[in-house]
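Reading group handout, session on sequence-to-structure problems. Before we discuss, look at one worked example. The prompt was deliberately terse, the way you'd type it at a terminal:

> structure UPF0145 protein SAMN02745168_1210

The input record follows.
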Amino acid sequence: MILVNTDYITGKELEMLGLVKGSTIQSKNIGRDITQGFKTLVGGELKAYNEMMNEARAIATKRMVAEAEELKADAVVNIRYASAAIMQGAAEVIAYGTAVKFK
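And the output record:
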């Protein structure tokens, strides 16, 4: 499966199959949430949240690819990511793009 953030793949003629997406909502445990809260007092990278968001993007991408595979797609083009805070310490990440088949 080819995944790109452009709306084309060089040298390929594409047939659009439709929108595909994958999402997840992730949170850290309360202990991590408290320690990251203290980190905001002194500044710096919030590593636990960074790891959480990386994991969430990977899960959302995997789910998007699974949806594309159900459509028998060869690739997903124009991939985008969006995220939103759901509550303190929890975030939703969605990955979406257009499933395509090579002509």
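Points for discussion. First: The mean pLDDT is 87. Second: The CA atoms of residues 34 and 89 lie 10 Å apart.
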